[in-house]
Amino acid sequence: MTSNSLCVGFCILLVTVSSAFCKVSNEERLSKLEAQLEKVTSELNDIKKQCACQQGDNSSNAAMAKSRETRATDPFVAFAATIISDMTPLAANEVIIFDNVYTKVGGGYDPFIGRFQAPVAGYYHFVVTIISYQSHFIEIELIRDGSMLCRARASQTYNAMGACASNVHLNVGSDVWVRHRSSVGDYIRGSYFPSFTGHLIKAD
């Protein structure tokens, strides 16, 4: 074999080895770049999630702040009263007067006539409890401006109690009271057992 042939063969071998080395080197670089790209993509997704959470927190905080501001500006109206003495006999549709007022905020309830008059328009919640005595029974109604909202009955069972509750919208000046239902029953036990309570849920 001539020296020229050896030289050519060596050059071919060198080119082949160099090509293989370059191919391996390029594949390694590509693999590293792909790994780096995957890492950056993952970090970017994490940042997006954090931003979304922060936006959600900001929206929630804004809603809470608005709710607190609304509550702060809403008027507060509430009352609670009981009956001191037994009531008997009772006339048909007689107004039940809860004469012992222990909570009265924002005005509204008059213990002399037994009526609540809304000082603020909005939605109110009312609860009435009533108690009978020994062999007697009683039925009462919660009334708004002449229309019944709910009824309660305390039966003849000893110290039986009845109750009714209502959520209702009132205009300014609307009246709410408790009355004896027609002529059903004839005795209400006092001693602070019966109660009439109400409060403003949300003003208009």
TrEMBL record:
Positions of the C1q domain: 72-204
PROSITE patterns: C1Q (PS50871)
Main location: secreted
Name used for this protein in its record: Heavy metal-binding protein HIP
Signal peptide interval: 1-22
Keywords: Coiled coil, Secreted, Signal
Keyword field contains Coiled coil: yes
Record lineage: Eukaryota, Metazoa, Spiralia, Lophotrochozoa, Mollusca
Coiled-coil positions: 23-50
Keyword Cell membrane: no
